[in-house]
# Entry
Amino acid sequence: MAVYTVYPSHDGQIRSVSSNYSYARAGTGGGLTYSSTGTTIGIGQYLNVYDYTIFQNYQTYNIGALGLGSVAATGAYLNLTLSSNYTTVDSTTYARVSTYSDTAFSTSDWVAGADSSSAALLASFNTVNLPYANDDFTFSSDSYLNTYITAQIAGKVKVRYAESRFETGNQPTQSNDEDYYIKSTESTGTTYDPFLYFETIPASAKTGSITANAYIKTPISSSLTANGQIIKNGFYANAVIKANGVTRSIRANAYIGKTTTKTVVGDSATGTAVASVFRSTPDSIRAIKIYRSKPIR
# Structure
């Protein structure tokens, strides 16, 4: 098993402003601006006197810099750090697949509200659970996040964040704000940076059944049959042992090879390898004595 923490090689925001909510949501009317240099990035929408403001947040994770080869991602999640929170209306922030240009980021990467939900969902977060400033929070991952990372393992994972009420066309009111701000990669160091976490197993890992026969020689002989499942390279083995008709379970967790931890900052990767570990936990295994009769001569 290998563990990876990847920081964005690029992040930024696009802001749409208009006195007409339909124009702001569509990104038309000349009110679009973009930025990749601020220390905070906006998510959500609000009404300020006469103008509606809507944010979309973009991130690129260059996982190809890890040079992983043929592997499958598992256990993935996205993590952000809150800078400030102005929300007075609860909503859901969606993290979706993006095709924006991280090398030529511009207002042309804006996705209209009517089209936003058509992009595949990677993760989501309800704003009622936002933490205090400078605390981090983790999105609830959709199963497609692992699939998307696996498909992009030699390239880049691109994410766009948009608010649920923006997608459904619910315009904010003067006293009901729906915007909050997160720390960007422009913050000093990586303490508050967004990051993508995931683990990997070989893409060729198989799941199958096994049968084993063993004998306890001391103090008696009993036939044992084990039937279970093994998942290679992640290695969770669960077996049921039957000793003379009495069923007992045995659980084993094994990590075969080395456990690797790597971190990607921008386009460079560093990491360490940890020695192999094997753990096995039996659960109440016992044999039943066998009595044999001796014929009388």
About this structure: Residues 144-151 form the longest helix (8 residues). Residues 210-244, 246-258, 273-293 have pLDDT under 50 and may be disordered. Residues 2-202 form one domain.
